Amino acid sequence: MKANTQKIKPAKQTKKSLQNIDSYTHLRGESIYVDDVNVRQGTLHAVVFDSNCAHGKIKSVDYSKALALDGVVRILTATDVTGENQIGGIIPDEPLFAEDEVHFWGQPIALIVAESISIAKKARKLIVAEFEELPVITTAKQAKEKGSFINAPRSFNLGDVATAFEKCEHVFEGETFSNGQEHLYIEAQGAYVEPLENGNFRIVSSTQGPTQVQRIAARVLGIPMHKIEVDVTRLGGGFGGKEDQATPWAVMAALAAQILNQSVKLILDRHDDLRMTGKRHPYETTYKIGLSKDLKIQAFEIELLQNSGAAADLSPAIAERTLFHATNSYYVPNVKSTVYSCKTNLPPNTAFRGFGGPQGMFVIESAIARAASELGVLNTTIQEANLLKENDEFSYGQIAQKVEIQNSWNTAKDKFELEKAQKEVAVFNENSTTVKKGIAVMPITFGISFTNTQMNHARALVHIYQDGSIGVSTAAVEMGQGVNTKLLQIAVDSFSVENHRVKIESTNTTRVANTSPSAASATADLNGKALLMACDSLLFRLKNIVADEYEVDIKSVSLRDEFVYIDNKKSTITWEDLIFKAMALRVALTENAHYATPVIHFDKTKEKGHPFAYHVYGTAIVTTTVDCLRGTYEFDSVKIIHDFGKSMNLGIDLGQVEGGLIQGIGWMTMEEISYAPNGRLLSNALSTYKVPDVYSVPKEVEVHPLETPGNDMAVLKSKAVGEPPLMYGIGAYFAIQNAIKAFNPKYKMKFHAPMTPEKVLMGLYQK
Amino acid sequence: MIEFILNERHIRTDAKSGMTLLDFIRYEKRLTGTKIGCREGDCAACTALVGTINANGVIAYQSITTCISPLGNAHGKHIVTIEGVNLKNELNVAQEAMKLNYATQCGFCTPGFVLSLTGFAFSGKQNTEENIIAAISGNICRCTGYKSIQRAAMDIATKLDALELDNKIPWLVEHNFIPSYFIEISERLQKINPKEKKDTGAFVVSGGTDMYVQRADSLVEENISLVCDLEYLKGIQLTDDKIVIGANTTVTEFASHEIIQNIFPNLKKHIALVSSEPIRNMASFGGNLVNASPIGDMTIFFLALNSSITLQSEKGTREILLKDFYKGYKTYDLQERELITAISFDALSGFKFNFEKVCKRMYLDIASVNSAISVTVDNDKITSAHVAMGGVAPIPKYLEQTSAFLRGKTICAELISLSVEKLQEEIAPISDVRGTEDYKRLLARQLFVAHFIELFPSKLNLKDCLAYES
To answer: Which residues of A touch B160 (CB under 8 A)?
Structure first.
């Protein structure tokens, strides 16, 4: 037997970097996720009873039949909460359990605790709730009309748009819509809680934010934070969906454990997870773009309506990031951007890879596509004419520095022969009637740092044990992004020891406290920098031992490959010897280091500052083929030049680019969230909500690192990589749109994502 | 008593036959490498391999999704979870390839991929990219974007170059694909007796792929009537120019049958559009027909063949046309304790056949509209035509009038155009999560046209077919 096709090229350049350190247990099914934890004997199981009304007053809830069922232990509601019934993070506007009113379909009302999940589920079916229905808002536009907002709108201003528009040669106005997106981490939300002695609790949670779980659990249980230990080994995917929204389930289980003094497990099944949790925010936007005669964007004005759902959750922060990225990779001298966080009767929408950034970028890319179409030029002509340059000012006041967007664009253009490819597509389309191709380019510029400056800190706790093995604890949560592998590399390189000496511990609030969530692509930077500091301090003490003993300058001492070197000469002292000496000399072999990102600041009263440590840049070329008979499409290729800085692990980083890209393409094409007017989720199962499968990914994905000097604000100059690549997927929308235009000259361009086969076919045959 | 081998271990259990295999594996046996992702067969995080001894005494392995598989169907089988393919202190070939290609990120879907790829190694299928990628077509990964997994799959395929087809299991053991205990499994399985007594539960379940999506909660505590292994319901035969297919035949068995492949030259392409490999390995035709989904792919397929079905009960046997079976939304002409035993169609006529399906995601998705046609032509003149369409009516729709209109006519663009008008009168799609009414009407036209362009490419093209539109 012979493999007759070899189209998939092995990514040779990645073979050298360290593979994910969890590979061995992942591949053998031995990695432990929250539902795999060995539970205590007598553990109870919980299921959430939620509202099947999107907005209403709770008239009555009859639990009597459910309580009468054998094996049901207790049903907890708002009145059972021992502390505060409040889980809101940024704004305290979200009860753990609904009290008098429900505000979204799927809102938790009660927790059924039983001897088994199946009993709890049976009990759930016996509960009867009656509501006095109130008007339901499902779209941001409806909310704005009714004045229903989460908080006050935010506005970024640069220059003077009104004057600038007057001087513009071309002005276009229009509307865009981008839909939400379900995270679809394959591991659903869940937690397991054990009561310990003296009213203490240990929570095992699948959360990106262990401190958030600890803080909110303390609030709801009415106890100090030190009584709660949160432990996270790993997540089966997060993507932002477990930044804030892992909290309620952990807190409910903790409350049950507190009240019943028994360990409790709460794992959502997929349907519950889809129905009860928030998603990426849909945005409805109006834009106005003004260009000069030479196609320079002179003015850009947008009003974004964010569909925030029924509570604030992280919406205000996400709205802010939308404004930060509203001009994507372009310099626009006059900008006015306003965002409204609109309160609707949907589950509170939340963080999702890109955190509002993708939604902002989609708008300006739409505006450019519209302008290009009206002016009869290629989108790329306008894109290229407006790329950001060194020392350009962003609308939020930061001055662009070490800008690599033109570098990435030009590299992509040359390396992937963009102009030739564009011509080939045009020729193909002239000669083909039922199949059309489309090509689009997507540049990205994405700011790295939590935009809330005070969250940009992390700590690392390093123990060197007396046998020379090393334990590393940080605030980083491993969720597939490979941060533990990077942390291991940092420790191993610092001490120049073998990989097996270093263990990356679980993320635990008793070892590393007051953590920021693993989010904003910043986890490796923040925790890695803290770890470097801790390792440096330990190294200093260790080297000092040698310097003292051999009476040499500390600068002449180094560690290499498990040996001490003095003046670049290998000594007989091994790593283990050195640690043995340190013990004998009573030198501290534990270090805790704290890192806070320097330079960054932002003044919300002025909406100006320098919120980002640096930006990540890149350019993607997306080519698609549309079947104009059936309205289906596939992607021929996506070719990317990406700014990794100096990647510390290209294998892992490439995985982030490919994974992010495909998730972005999913958001822009097939992933369609759908709510009925009464607020019920229609795309409520994997049979109705489709994410990319192996057949829907581009036939060819080629990713090349951009040559750059790197950036010292990134750990080891290796830039953050989690979120930015998702936005390459936006190119998919415009590639398909270009193919539709080639088939149907009457097609009226719409910017309404996702571009499902339905929208494609309707566009192809629009009259 | 259900008796089977789980990895290396012999299992005898009194657990309910309707319990899902997944729950048994994870919670009764604490084999936690089998993950729960969706419980509806749509993500394959819970994949296991099932080894079955065939009539020749040879063991064959297939992948299934354990979340929608009743425990009772494991009887007499070898069930292999991720723990069962692990070598003692090293990664097996599939695992190593995944590792080297960075094909695992969060790791949650990973065991499922490993098993699907290992299942491919067992299959003995030609080690082409197309075939090995098909093996993971049901597995969803949200982290990697699949490219790294594709690279790993190709590395694995290459390692199978020298696979000895008549000596598969020892070869796979020798080459570190699987642990050595597999060698004795065939012998051990043959010692397990077939089920002593027939199940007598209220629900009749074959593969379970629809039943467990719809009503798992009520089935898991039942002893259900499992018909999956009843031999008289299995098999595909050609008799008197008729193809007779046992209701228990799985889609995979159908698609890999030589006679069927000869009748439908594009079968591989059509079947690829129907669910995913592990589901096709379980799903039976009988189940697909009684599920009565207005959009069932195989139902539409058989409607267009003007198939008949055989219904059997204690009172006797009757045969009716499949198109007469459906009465309204999810209602049909099935009497108390009556069972579909077979489906049959005329294989004689030398018809041309096509199947079309469009959904949000091209594969492993439920159609917005699907359609099939069988048509016989004599010198450009249509002598017989049967068209069926799903997603356009409360039932899987046999397009009676459109089919009749086509008969006796000469194929040309104008005919297609006029037929589309008939078609539009005959269908009544509604707006739902799979598309608006307008879209489904447009798609119905397009797929109808697609049939003719596919079948008669030299006579018709898209432009001409649409030119006659009023």
So the answer is: 1
Query: pLDDT (tens digit, 9 = 90+) per residue, B14-67?
Result: 999 899 999 999 999 999 999 999 999 999 999 999 999 988 889 999 999 999
Q: Which DSSP state fits A748?
A: P
Phi (first) and psi of residue B159, to 5 degrees: -70, -15
The H or E element spanning position B226 is: strand B225-226
Name which of A7, A17, A28 to mutate to probe chain B: the one with the most chain B Cβ atoms within 10 A of its Cβ.
Answer: A28
Q: Kindly report, as residue ranges, where domains of CATH 3.90.1170.50 are found in chain A.
A: 41-134+189-267
- Give yes or no for A6 touching B (CB within 8 A): yes
**Can you give the pTM of this predicted structure?**
0.97
Would you state the CATH architecture of domain A457-596? Answer: 2-Layer Sandwich (3.30)
Identify all chain A residues contacting B366, using CB atoms and an 8 Å cutoff. Answer: 687-688
Contact A546, A558 (CB under 8 A): no
List every span in chain A annotated with CATH 3.30.365.10: 372-449+606-764, 457-596
- The residue type of A737 is Q
Top-level class of domain A372-449+606-764: alpha beta
Q: Average pLDDT by consecutive 10-residue portion of chain A (767 residues)?
A: 41 68 98 97 98 98 98 98 96 97 98 97 97 98 98 98 98 98 98 98 98 98 98 98 98 98 98 98 98 98 98 98 98 98 98 98 98 97 98 98 97 98 98 96 98 97 98 98 98 97 98 97 97 98 98 97 98 98 98 98 97 98 98 98 97 98 98 97 96 97 94 96 98 98 96 98 96
- Peptide bond connecting A248 to the previous residue in cis, omega within 30 degrees of 0: no
CATH class, domain A41-134+189-267, is alpha beta
A390 is catalytic: no
pLDDT at B207: 85
CA distance B70 to B41: 13
Other CB atoms within 10 A of residue A238 CB? 32
Q: What would be the CATH architecture of the domain defined by B93-174?
A: Orthogonal Bundle (1.10)
Looking at residue A538, its amino acid is: L
Which CATH entry fits the domain spanning B2-85+182-226: 3.40.30.10, 2.60.40.740, 3.10.20.30, 3.40.50.1000?
3.10.20.30
Q: Answer yes or no: is pLDDT of B364 > 60.
A: yes
C-beta of residue A662 within 8 angstroms of C-beta of residue A729: yes
Cα–Cα distance measured from residue B371 to residue B450, given in angstroms and rounded to the nearest whole number: 10
CATH of domain B230-470: 3.30.465.10
Q: Which residue has the higher pLDDT, B314 or A42?
A: A42
- Read off the pLDDT band of B280 (50, 70, 90): very high
Residue A264 tokens read as 């409790």
Per-window interface: A 434-463 vs B, CB < 8 A: 434
Summary count for chain A: helices (H), strands (E):
19, 30
Give the tens place of pLDDT for each residue, B143-194: 999 999 999 999 999 999 999 999 999 999 999 999 999 999 999 999 998 8
Cβ contacts (< 8 Å) between A655 and chain B: which residues?
Answer: 102, 105, 143-145, 148
Nearest to B374 by CA among B350, B401, B409: B350
Pairing of strands B59-65, B47-53: antiparallel
The catalytic residue among A229, A243, A320, A723 is A723
Could A235 and B443 be called an inter-chain contact, meaning their C-beta atoms sit closer than 8 Å?
no
The residues near B9 (Cβ < 8 Å, ≥ 6 apart) are none
Q: Tell me if residue A201 falls in helix, strand or coil.
A: strand
Average pLDDT over residues B295-315: 95
Domain ranges of chain B: 2-85+182-226, 93-174, 230-470
- The answer to whether A692 faces chain B, any CB pair under 8 Å, is yes
